[in-house]
């Protein structure tokens, strides 16, 4: 069970959080619902139904106690398009767990299936059709426990729809397929056995560390707070960790094994790209329109958008298949993307740690962020600047939502209605609100 949410007040987080874009209008909720006794950790819209969404939540702010998965439904037969008001939400189904829930993800294959991740290291698969009433159920379709610490993030692959990923505070990223009775397909370890840098990039070969940059990955396995499959290349997955780095892996490249690697060899999975973000990386999201572009939110209160096309181009493909030709495929020989110059100076995007970031599925330049400063904000990510396409200095805030009264932990765009956003917070409320998309 987590002792406290990562990056909350008491860690990083000073400043006024004014960011850029003074005058951006504050959006009030057009609909809200309470989740009494349970603090929201993340919210996800169904990829099949425009009126359905799910919320992962925990009692006592996730410090101790049970978890609850809420499946919410908008009013029947109501339209949420054309600028019309969204009707009130109602609970259609609830599932209870013995430990707090930190994330939820809908299946890309089955309209009624979704998974949740828990503080006890477990993952559960639920079927909403098995419990059509709002009375809580405690019986999942399947229950897996391979992680040894909190499972903080889930990602269902939008391309290889039989796969989902989980990341944990135990320093691992695991790939699963529920179609094979929940068999674990792959484990990527950020590892306590040694540095996760490719062995072809030795510290003596690197330039001096940029001032303010995160330290090089250490021998201690960092918490893996977030993971996300690429929406463009089925074999690429990124994760963000407590050591301040984003790692991108190609699942076609095998991890070393004790037999093949030899005694004393680092068995950590080797990333094809390693990105120093600054601060613990609490959230990341891929751009749905620009392959190789992702956004990060971290404890340094920043929101950044990175262009990794140069590093990832040899590995990018639109279909699953064998490893790419003429690029390194053996662990320890991958491409390392390391910052050797300070990032573009930028003001902070929020007053406290950035807990969640999400690109709009309807506009390539629009990004939402949620923070422990009790606000959610919307950014226009204009102004490409070399490798880092945007930072708070080159992004413009075009909207904000400040109706929550506690930490905002999750923010998510509707997949069907442009500009409709859901957010959840530790105030035990889920809000729907509108954001500009242009």
TrEMBL record:
<feature type="compositionally biased region" description="Low complexity">
    <location>
        <begin position="198"/>
        <end position="211"/>
    </location>
</feature>
<dbReference type="InterPro" id="IPR019775">
    <property type="entry name" value="WD40_repeat_CS"/>
</dbReference>
<feature type="repeat" description="WD">
    <location>
        <begin position="94"/>
        <end position="127"/>
    </location>
</feature>
<dbReference type="GO" id="GO:0005782">
    <property type="term" value="C:peroxisomal matrix"/>
</dbReference>
<keyword id="KW-0813">Transport</keyword>
<feature type="repeat" description="WD">
    <location>
        <begin position="294"/>
        <end position="309"/>
    </location>
</feature>
<dbReference type="Pfam" id="PF00400">
    <property type="entry name" value="WD40"/>
</dbReference>
<keyword id="KW-0853">WD repeat</keyword>
<keyword id="KW-0963">Cytoplasm</keyword>
<keyword id="KW-0653">Protein transport</keyword>
<feature type="region of interest" description="Disordered">
    <location>
        <begin position="196"/>
        <end position="217"/>
    </location>
</feature>
<feature type="repeat" description="WD">
    <location>
        <begin position="347"/>
        <end position="380"/>
    </location>
</feature>
<feature type="region of interest" description="Disordered">
    <location>
        <begin position="1"/>
        <end position="20"/>
    </location>
</feature>
<dbReference type="GO" id="GO:0005053">
    <property type="term" value="F:peroxisome matrix targeting signal-2 binding"/>
</dbReference>
<feature type="repeat" description="WD">
    <location>
        <begin position="144"/>
        <end position="176"/>
    </location>
</feature>
<comment type="similarity">
    <text>Belongs to the WD repeat peroxin-7 family.</text>
</comment>
<keyword id="KW-0677">Repeat</keyword>
<dbReference type="InterPro" id="IPR036322">
    <property type="entry name" value="WD40_repeat_dom_sf"/>
</dbReference>
<protein>
    <recommendedName>
        <fullName>Peroxin-7</fullName>
    </recommendedName>
</protein>
<dbReference type="InterPro" id="IPR015943">
    <property type="entry name" value="WD40/YVTN_repeat-like_dom_sf"/>
</dbReference>
<dbReference type="InterPro" id="IPR001680">
    <property type="entry name" value="WD40_rpt"/>
</dbReference>
<dbReference type="GO" id="GO:0005829">
    <property type="term" value="C:cytosol"/>
</dbReference>
<dbReference type="InterPro" id="IPR020472">
    <property type="entry name" value="WD40_PAC1"/>
</dbReference>
<dbReference type="InterPro" id="IPR044536">
    <property type="entry name" value="PEX7"/>
</dbReference>
<keyword id="KW-0576">Peroxisome</keyword>
<dbReference type="GO" id="GO:0016558">
    <property type="term" value="P:protein import into peroxisome matrix"/>
</dbReference>
């Amino acid at each position: 069970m987590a002792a406290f949410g990562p990056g909350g007040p008491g860690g990083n987080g000073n400043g006024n959080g004014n960011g850029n874009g003074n005058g951006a209008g504050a959006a009030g909720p057009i609909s809200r619902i309470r989740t009494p006794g349970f603090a929201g950790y993340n919210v996800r819209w169904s990829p099949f139904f425009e009126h359905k969404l799910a919320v992962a939540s925990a009692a006592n702010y996730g410090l101790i106690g049970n978890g609850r998965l809420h499946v919410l439904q908008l009013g029947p037969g109501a339209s949420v398009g054309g600028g019309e008001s969204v009707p009130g939400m109602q609970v259609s189904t609830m599932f209870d767990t013995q430990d707090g829930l930190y994330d939820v993800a809908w299946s890309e294959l089955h309209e009624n299936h979704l998974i949740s991740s828990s503080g006890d290291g477990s993952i559960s698969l639920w079927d909403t059709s098995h419990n059509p009433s709002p009375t809580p159920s405690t019986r999942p379709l399947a229950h897996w426990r391979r992680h040894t610490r909190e499972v903080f993030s889930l990602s269902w692959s939008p391309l290889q729809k039989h796969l989902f990923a989980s990341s944990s505070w135990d320093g691992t990223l695991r790939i699963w397929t529920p179609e094979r009775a929940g068999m674990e397909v792959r484990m990527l370890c950020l590892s306590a056995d040694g540095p996760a840098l490719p062995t072809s990039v030795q510290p003596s070969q690197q330039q001096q560390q940029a001032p303010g940059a995160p330290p090089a990955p250490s021998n201690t396995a960092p918490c893996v707070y977030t993971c996300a499959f690429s929406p463009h290349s089925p074999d690429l997955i990124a994760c963000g960790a407590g050591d301040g780095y984003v790692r991108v892996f190609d699942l076609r490249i095998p991890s070393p094994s004790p037999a093949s690697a030899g005694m004393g060899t680092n068995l950590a999975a080797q990333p094809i790209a390693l990105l120093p973000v600054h601060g613990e990386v609490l959230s990341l999201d891929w751009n749905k329109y620009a392959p190789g572009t992702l956004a990060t939110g971290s404890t340094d209160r920043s929101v950044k958008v990175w262009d990794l096309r140069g590093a990832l181009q040899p590995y990018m493909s639109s279909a699953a298949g064998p490893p790419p030709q003429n690029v390194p495929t053996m662990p320890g020989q991958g491409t390392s993307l390391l910052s050797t110059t300070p990032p573009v100076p930028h003001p902070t995007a929020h007053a406290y740690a950035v807990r969640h970031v999400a690109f709009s599925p309807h506009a390539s330049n629009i990004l939402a962020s949620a923070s422990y400063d009790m606000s959610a904000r919307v950014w226009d990510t204009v102004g490409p600047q070399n490798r880092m396409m945007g930072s708070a200095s080159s992004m413009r805030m075009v909207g904000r939502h400040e109706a929550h009264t506690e930490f905002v932990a999750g923010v998510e765009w509707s997949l069907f209605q442009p500009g409709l956003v859901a957010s959840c917070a530790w105030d035990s409320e889920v809000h729907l609100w509108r954001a500009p998309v242009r």
